[in-house]
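Sequence only, no structure available. Ideas?
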Amino acid sequence: MLSERRLEVLRAIVQDYVGTEEPVGSKALTERHRLGVSPATVRNDMAVLEDEGFIAQPHTSAGRIPTDKGYRLFVDKLAGVKPLSSPERRAIQNFLDGAVDLDDVVGRTVRLLAQLTRQVAVVQYPSLTRSTVRHVELLALAPARLMLVLITDTGRVEQRLIDCQVPFGETSLADLRARLNSRVVGRRFADVPQLVQDLPESFEQDDRGTVSTVLSVLLETLVEETEERLMIGGTANLTRFGHDFPLTIRPVLEALEEHVVMLKLLGEAKDSGMTVRIGHENAHEGLASTSVVTVGYGSGDEAVAKLGVVGPTRMDYPGTMGAVRAVARYVGQILAES
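Reply:
I predicted one. Tokens follow.
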């Protein structure tokens, strides 16, 4: 374990390198930070940090820069994330409050995260495998044509048209709507098939065919909509960090284009808490020069999806983590109120 003083030296190196983009020397450290020791002691501490693999010397007679291992220790030892200012919090709330539906919420969240962090923002749509049914609406468009509207607890709305073999009366439609909602509202998608399997038998013989057709469309909708989706924004921000990526940013761009890769990355963050993956901790080779900061969001205690940012390892970790956490909290509130 490193001593507290050497941890302080490492913190100072990370902060200076993130802020200046220049390798950090011992003289600059003692001038900028109150470390309470001589430059010679700082040089000795830097030598130990280098031997331990926490910092590296990019070229001869240059200062030092943090390694992935150094950033990892810096993040693990953070006393807390950087809180957002009151104007920043108000701006987040005002920007997200104007959203009209789930697609708008996700789109606004991506733009907001990219602007706040100046990184690439990634927002996963709420996972329907963890969603519940808020309401099922059935509308008569014609005597033998219905519209089914499925609304989830995360604000997702799906519509399907249903052509019936025979006309279906308004009384029967109201009866089906009431019985269907009494069984499925508040229940998880995965539970719905079992909850409605015997529903046709409770209707008159003449109506059972239509009830079965409606249920078939409902169950198909539940299956179709379990496909995971995400939205990515702010990719142009990577051009600001060209020198942070070895040779080229192309592998990073290719990884971002592969939504399967990004969904897998988000899924690897086991719980809804803050996860920071640094450099080679990212399994995908194209992301080995990046850091990925993610957190879960949801309408209650349970996260229904993840959001976060992708940027170079030379990142303002306290500020980025603070912004990601704050945005996730507001998105969760919007879903809860929607």
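Strands lie at 55-56, 65-66, 120-124, 133-142, 145-152, 157-163, 230-233, 275-278, 290-297, 305-312.
Hope that gets you unstuck.
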